[in-house]
Amino acid sequence: MSTYDTTTDGAPGQTARDPDSTTAKAQEKAQDAAFQAQDKAQQAAGQARNRVRDEVDTRSTQAGQQAETVADDVRSVSEHLRAEGKDKPAELADKAAARVADLGDYLKRSDGDAILRDVERFGRDKPWAVMAGGVVLGIAASRFLKASSSRRYHEQESSASLPARRAPERELSLSGGVVPQQETGPGARSGA
User: Where do the structural domains in the chain lie, given as residue ranges?
Assistant: First the structure.
């Protein structure tokens, strides 16, 4: 087995390349890259958080205005019920209108951060309610997908049976080629 001399003319035992300094430089570069990636990820997360907050703020204000409109409509129904002498249903409609109006007021006056904090707090306080809501949404989504897939299946089946879409049937010969389709009916050529 042969060995190579890696010493230089400098101090005895000093190698041409110092493996410790090369490793240290590589580690330093890796740490710099990791810090840069972490910084970019934090910036992206901050931007996403700002976009979500702004979108929630805009949508909540719109939902608050719509909730106030609904509350006004329910109040008018309540007045109509009272005019007909139906006090108990009118009282229930008033309570529902008050709750919808409160929700609308909350949505209009709260900014995106406050709403997101409240949602997070609700999720921490009542995780079972969040899970139940997720289950209900999952079931609703699966029912919707099932209904739409069966509709698409029936549409596909009915469109495949239409004569305009049907491809002409061809016979294969024993030699592997396609036998030309023979015309039938009046005016068809006989014998070829």
Answer: 36-125, 126-160
SS3 at position 150: helix
Q: Provide φ and ψ at 103, rounded to 5°.
A: -60, -45
- The full 3-state SS of 105-143, as one line of letters, equals HHHHHCCHHHHHHHHHHHHHHCHHHHHHHHHHHHHHHHH
Residue appearing with tokens 């901050």: 46
pTM: 0.45
Helix (H) or strand (E) holding 171: strand 171-172
How many angstroms separate the CA atoms of 173 and 89, rounded?
79
Per-residue pLDDT tens for 2-46?
555 555 554 444 444 566 778 888 888 888 888 888 888 888 888
Phi, psi of 15 (to 5 degrees): -90, 165
